[in-house]
Write a structure and sequence with these properties.
The chain has one domain (about 5-170): MoaB/Mog-like domain (Molybdenum Cofactor Biosythetic Enzyme, Chain A, 3-Layer(aba) Sandwich), CATH 3.40.980.10. Helix content is about 35%, strand content about 20%. The chain has seven helices and eight strands. It has helices spanning about 10-15, 25-35, 50-65, 85-90, 95-105, 135-145, 160-170; strands at about 5-10, 40-45, 70, 95, 120-125, 125-130, 145, 150-155. The strands form two sheets. It has a six-stranded mixed beta sheet, with helices on both faces. Strands 7-8 form a two-stranded antiparallel ribbon. Strand 7 and strand 8 (about 150-155) form a beta hairpin. About 40% of the residues are buried.
Length: about 190
């Protein structure tokens, strides 16, 4: 069975075609490199409107049946950045470790990572993760911090995603270890 992944880019200007969205293409490219399991992407490009974000996330979980939703954009401290608040409003459970790890990874690249409000939540059997809007930052957060030999020094968040989906009853995902190695505890 294919994993259904919702990709939601949240941007006033991109949704109005003032500029081209970079979030969804960056996520699609990364997922194509990182996943060896079959998957299907369902995409949405929407403005920074709390009601629209909530409606879109609910639709992707309750009607479309996504196993995983990755949002991009709207996670900063400006008044228009409401993605985390909208995500929390539709959540059944918060997974604080995802937001903590996103900020930890980002701090290795920019001191402004402490301004990020990103969250990870569960709605029903769907994992929803808020990612930043910049393609470079998306990759860094998903993969982690690498040293000069390309070895992971600080794990990115995606290493935990497949096991999280296992635990909540989502689709089974296998990753390409050259991009990100999924962690699953050894069975005894």
């Amino acid at each position: 069975m294919s994993c259904k992944i919702g990709l939601v880019s949240i941007s006033d200007r991109a949704s109005q075609a003032i500029y081209e969205d970079q979030g969804i293409p960056a996520l699609q490219k990364w997922l194509t490199e990182a996943l060896v399991s079959p998957f299907l992407c369902v995409t949405r490009l929407i403005p920074d409107e709390r009601a629209m974000i909530k409606k879109t996330l609910i639709e992707l979980v309750d009607k479309v049946g996504c196993d995983l939703i990755l949002t991009t954009g709207g996670t900063g401290p400006s008044p228009r950045d409401v993605t985390p608040e909208a995500t929390l409003a539709i959540a059944n459970r918060v997974l604080p470790g995802f937001g903590e790890q996103m900020r930890q990874v980002s701090l290795h690249f920019v001191p402004t990572a402490i301004l990020s409000c990103q969250v990870g939540v569960i709605r029903k059997a769907t994992l929803i993760l808020n990612l930043p809007g910049q393609p470079k930052a998306i990759r860094q957060i998903l993969e982690g911090v690498r040293d000069a030999t390309n070895a992971i020094q600080v794990p990115g968040i995606f290493a935990a995603v497949p096991y999280c989906l296992d635990l909540i009853g989502g689709a089974f995902l296998e990753t390409n270890p050259a991009v990100v190695e999924a962690f699953r505890p050894l069975k005894k």
